[in-house]
Amino acid sequence: MAILSHDTKQAIGRLEATLASPSISPKEAQSCARLVEKLSRPVRIGLFGPNPDDTAALLSGLLGSSPLPEGAGWPTVEIEHGEKARVTATLDDASTLVLDGIAGADLMAKSPVFLRIEAPIALLERMSFLFLAPGETADEQLAALSWAARRTDIAIWCSPRFDEDEALIWSAAPDKLKHHALLVATDWPEDEDALGRHAGLDFDGVFAVRVSLARDRRVIDRLLTRLNSDIEDAHAADIDAAQLFLHRFGHLADTVAKDRAAPKSAPEKAEPVVVEIEKPATPAQAEGPSAEVIAMVSEPLLYLKRRARALMEMLDWQAIEDGEADDRAAEILNHCNETAEGLRDRAADWSDDDRRTRVLRRVLDEACDTTILLQMEGGEEQAEDAARLLLQLRTEFERELAA
Question: For residue 234, which of 159, 127, 314 has the smallest C-alpha distance?
Fold first, then answer.
């Protein structure tokens, strides 16, 4: 189990409450469950390559020690965190053995075809590892890579020089593996820039080992630094995705929470999905906006009104022919994102002395972040949410000027 921050636990709790709502659709329930699963577990690192000795040495270097006895032939191995050491072995007759402690020579003599190892290693609280035993033929290796793709978040291909045969196998591997992949070359005498040119565009990063994995600890340290950085970025993206999902469907979690608190009360009718802008609570002010504030906000408001009118013309969904909805959604999302960014640019020089400009700047920052996430997700529903958000921005501006 990964060590989770307070914010992550809170997001998981709200997602699970949303998932428990009877009003959630099967499609959204699937998305919600996937988010809960990704936030709850460590990132899965897959280690692949034609030379099992090199790949095993890389895994041992990352862990700080070898998980299997010296000289043992490695089957496919999954390694994850556990409070105590335990091994679950699958034998070639499909039977399983569960043993407390580490994998010993007696177990390896039974020639297991798959091992699941649990170990109390701190690194495993953050990332788990899959070591894939290479197949004897290219077809066997591709079949194994397809199986591993469903169990891998970050792929590492480890080989001496990434030759042409390996390049052919990797080019045919599932795209999911190549979406986030690193290359470790264990016998590369040239610099890493040359390795990157040699490997092509299918890897996000390359690492060249000049001496040996056992002696070149600097490569292991650099690789761990890169993995930790990538994990932070991936986790931040998952949190953003969760917040976006809750922004659209969090009202279902609120309904579940109310039902649990008062189970005998009549269930509340679910509210329609809306993108709401939370306005920070501020003390009421008796006097209206100053002339300076009106001067600062008036031009951005006119800009927003022009953009909103153009948006209303784009929102005629009934006029869209079949097959054109995706293009129209992308156009609307781009329009809303450009509008929010244009407003934020105009607000950059606003004074912080007035409450209204502080509130509006905060609202604009939140709107920009939300429209970016909606644009990344894409789709008709997201376009409608972005349009609704833009129209709410206009209402917010007018409210602050009228206060």
Answer: 127
